[in-house]
């Protein structure tokens, strides 16, 4: 009997030891109550996609742009100069019950407003951060982002970055009650036509104006970065609470990628004749606008590939897309200038590309507008991240995370004197 009790005691001690060992490794939790907060390490760079991944040469006319006597990463298209205005970020989080905890089938990820973070600061890396990761020294980082995890749930985390001055240009649909991950999207908002947004193109109702204020709409697309987060040791976008202390406290990281195309149009300025009326005089250009006829306003945000299939183009006219004038940039004060550069970001699109021009003289306004043809323009080929658009029937295809540098003249549209 005594021997039997000894065996039982040893067995009990063995069970206790095993149990104590497991308790030291596993983190007990009560679903819905046990929680922790982990940092989000989010970064992005100014690099562009390019068809020639081996090319790292400075593009034409780029050279030593920062004046330090050398051609370095700051001088390359896609360097820090391209992202220095990106100063704000937003984190959007979705969660669902963890089927590994509940034993029930996985449901939809639903928007988690308790984890929503807006107005986070984006900044260049410190010297210490650059030294720790020299390969990505030019990356910008998002400060202060974090994820609050609750035991019993698993998460998907999306981050976006943009110029804080352009935050009013778009909206997220996170105000949709019960929004699921697959329903998440962004919408770029049409601009009110004011002197600040479109210059004097709202003051051109006279008889010598073909580009009247009611003939166009205005839309400005922000330079916009998008990405998802994952745990440091995995690319899986589903983030679990964890079963060990190491897993529970493990950091979460993410890289953001540019979701729009950049179109830069450099034009030599000529004169123009008004677009209608019996005035055959030629006028200098004092204001100019960049036009497209197919500019999308909406993109699904469940994945980066959603930006390959944007939706809802802004429509000014009915069936005739030839007259669907969408103003995407403008410049004023050109009376004494010989050239101008117009710049816009757009969601991936296939579109016509054109200009509208304006002049005010002797109490009269004069305007005209027109589309470019492919043969009238040239492109900055061969530079890092700078490629020619695909052209078909004088429609230009601008792709996500590509930069297009296009040169021409207003003469190509309006002829010459």
Account of the 3D structure:
The protein is mainly beta and 417 residues long. The chain is built from 6 helices and 27 strands. The protein has helices spanning 2-25, 99-102, 127-132, 195-198, 245-248, 411-414, and strands spanning 35-44, 88-97, 110-111, 117-124, 140-142, 146-150, 153-162, 170-172, 185-188, 190-191, 216-219, 225-231, 239-240, 252-258, 261-268, 287-292, 296-300, 311-313, 325-332, 339-346, 349-351, 353-361, 364-371, 378-379, 390-392, 395-398, 403-409. It has a 7-stranded mixed barrel. A 6-stranded mixed sheet has the order 10-11-19-16-22-23, with no helix packed on it. A 4-stranded antiparallel sheet has the order 8-9-17-18, with no helix packed on it. Strand 25 and strand 26 (395-398) form a beta hairpin. The longest helix has 24 residues, at 2-25. The chain is elongated, with a radius of gyration of 28 Å. The protein starts with a helix and ends with a helix. Residues 1-28 and 52-77 have low confidence and may be disordered.
Short summary:
With 417 residues, this protein is mainly beta. It contains 6 helices and 27 strands.
Layout of helices and strands, plus pairs?
Blueprint: H1 2-25, E1 35-44, E2 88-97, H2 99-102, E3 110-111, E4 117-124, H3 127-132, E5 140-142, E6 146-150, E7 153-162, E8 170-172, E9 185-188, E10 190-191, H4 195-198, E11 216-219, E12 225-231, E13 239-240, H5 245-248, E14 252-258, E15 261-268, E16 287-292, E17 296-300, E18 311-313, E19 325-332, E20 339-346, E21 349-351, E22 353-361, E23 364-371, E24 378-379, E25 390-392, E26 395-398, E27 403-409, H6 411-414
Parallel strand pairs: 1-14, 11-19, 15-27
Antiparallel strand pairs: 1-5, 1-6, 2-3, 2-4, 2-7, 4-5, 7-12, 7-13, 8-9, 9-17, 10-11, 12-14, 15-20, 16-19, 16-22, 17-18, 21-26, 22-23, 24-27, 25-26
């Amino acid at each position: 009997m005594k021997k039997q009790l000894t065996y039982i005691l040893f067995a009990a001690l063995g069970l206790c030891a095993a149990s104590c060992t497991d308790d030291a490794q596993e983190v007990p939790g009560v679903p819905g109550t046990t929680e922790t907060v982990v940092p989000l390490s989010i970064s992005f760079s100014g690099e562009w996609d390019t068809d020639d991944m081996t090319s790292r040469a400075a593009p034409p006319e780029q050279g030593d742009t920062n004046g330090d006597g050398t051609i370095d990463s700051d001088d390359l298209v896609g360097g820090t100069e391209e992202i220095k205005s990106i100063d704000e970020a937003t984190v959007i989080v979705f969660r669902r019950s963890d089927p590994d905890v509940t034993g029930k089938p996985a449901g939809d990820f639903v928007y988690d407003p308790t984890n929503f973070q807006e107005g986070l600061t984006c900044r260049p890396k410190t010297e210490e951060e650059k030294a720790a990761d020299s390969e990505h020294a030019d990356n910008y980082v998002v400060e202060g982002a974090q994820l609050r995890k609750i035991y019993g749930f698993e998460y998907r985390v999306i981050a976006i970055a943009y110029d804080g001055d352009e935050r009013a240009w778009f909206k997220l649909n996170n105000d949709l009650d019960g929004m699921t991950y697959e329903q998440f999207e962004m919408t770029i908002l049409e601009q009110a036509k004011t002197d600040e947004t479109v210059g004097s193109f709202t003051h051109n109702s006279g008889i010598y104006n073909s580009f009247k204020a009611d003939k166009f709409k205005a839309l400005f697309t922000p330079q916009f970065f998008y990405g998802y987060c994952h745990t440091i040791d995995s690319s899986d976008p589903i983030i679990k609470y964890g079963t060990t202390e190491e897993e529970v406290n493990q950091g979460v990281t993410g890289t953001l990628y540019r979701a729009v195309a950049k179109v830069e149009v450099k034009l030599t300025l000529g004169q123009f004749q008004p677009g209608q009326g019996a005035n055959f005089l030629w006028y200098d250009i004092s204001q100019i606008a960049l036009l497209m006829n197919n500019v999308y306003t909406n993109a699904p945000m469940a994945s980066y590939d959603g930006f390959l299939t944007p939706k809802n183009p802004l429509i000014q006219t009915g069936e005739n897309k030839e007259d669907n004038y969408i103003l995407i940039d403008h410049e004023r004060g050109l009376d004494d200038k010989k050239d101008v550069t117009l710049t816009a970001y757009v969601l991936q699109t296939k579109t016509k590309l054109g200009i509208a021009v304006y002049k005010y003289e002797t109490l009269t306004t004069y305007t005209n507008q027109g589309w470019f043809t492919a043969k009238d323009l040239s492109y900055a080929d061969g530079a890092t991240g700078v490629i020619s658009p695909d052209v078909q029937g004088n429609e230009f295809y601008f792709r996500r995370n590509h930069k297009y540098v296009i040169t021409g003249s207003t003469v190509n549209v309006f002829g010459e004197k």
